[in-house]
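Quick one: structure tokens for this chain, please?
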Amino acid sequence: MSLLVKICGLKTEESIETAIAAGADLIGLVFHPKSPRYVMPERAAMLALLARGRATITALVVDPTDAALSELLSTVSPDLWQFHGQEPYERIRDVRAVYGLPVMKAVGVAEAGDLPSVAAYARVSDRILLDAKPPKDAAYPGGHGKVFDWAVLSALPPDLPFMLSGGLMPENVGAAIRTIRGMGLSLAGIDVSSGVESAPGVKDLGKIRAFIAAAREADAA
């Protein structure tokens, strides 16, 4: 199975068209108001129309209420929830059952001690995303452009598939893919947001193309 590539934090029609044309498998729409990549649900619904049937529409939410999820379901109609907050296992399990959509759970990683929760989340999630743990005073949980030490992932079960995020960019995504696979781990995909931007929340179309091309090249090697 080829590596999945997700471009997150898209806010314009042009960036979505560029990502899909370049070969992105998933596009991410951010619904955390404190993020510079936040989009209003009504605006996101228009963007989702461009991607419908061409890429997996991912709704990134942070500790959302049921009311917020219901609004996004009716307005945006995403294909996948991405939970990026402090949601407990039970919350992930219940959302999958109630809303009938697959869920990706993001887990912040800085050291090996952050990994024990991964297997437990994997039992109630459809996908796992390992991201760099944000700074303690961060206003939002992801998209800070920080790389964590990939070597700590050696403690993961080799048969546990996951997507990787955290400080990835066109210049290092190939090394990330080669390193993780060289450790014998099940790298299912990669996710980028700030690494393809010219400023926080402003996507660089050339970087999007370069990132996807670098990822595909490393995946095929």
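The chain has a mean pLDDT of 93.
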